[in-house]
Amino acid sequence: MRPERIPIPKSFYSIETEEPMSTCLACDRPLLDGETEYLIEKGYRQYEAYDVQETVFEYALCMDCHATMRQSFSDLSTRRCRAYLAEHVNLAERAGRLLDAESPDPSDWTRHCVVHDTPRQELAEYQVMAHCMGTEMILTHLPLLMGGPAVDALVERLSDETIDDLGGFRDEHLGPSPKLQRDLQGPVVA
Ligand SMILES: [Zn+2]
Questions:
Q1: How many CB atoms lie within 10 A of CB 91?
Q2: How many whole angstroms from 26 Cα to the centroid of ligand 1?
Q3: 148, CA 20 to 30 Å: which among 17, 48, 116, 123?
Q4: In angstroms, what is the span from residue 33 Cα to ligand 1's centroid?
């Protein structure tokens, strides 16, 4: 599998600045110097009747901070989430297939829920995740899109301890928001 690098698509830009996100949410490290790998996560809600899409949250997290956050996952949570994903999706096969295209189209990575294959348009809520370095996005297992039902299924597999830790991360960095209560914060699958 040859990873491809492409300029970060505008859909992964910050909705506030309309530019690529420039600092890590947790440690404020600059991200656009080209040296630092990081993850972008964004959550959306759609209102079909109004044809409106709302960004519920967005952030970039450097790999060091991501690793720290992953350590807060209990072994049980990690095992259960991996087992759930392994049962439903073969990320390596998917990446190989998408990268095999004549000219890989990054939007192909996020047209459907990675777990249930639900088209994005039919999802009331979904999250997208991407792996970036500087101003480029790296196409591998990521980016991916996960619909609300799949996120809920993952949350059900997390231990109470892990959910508390993720809630603490969310409250500390994103601020408490009633809208976010059922959302999973943090790239569980990356
Ligand atoms: Zn960081």
A1: 15
A2: 5
A3: 17
A4: 14
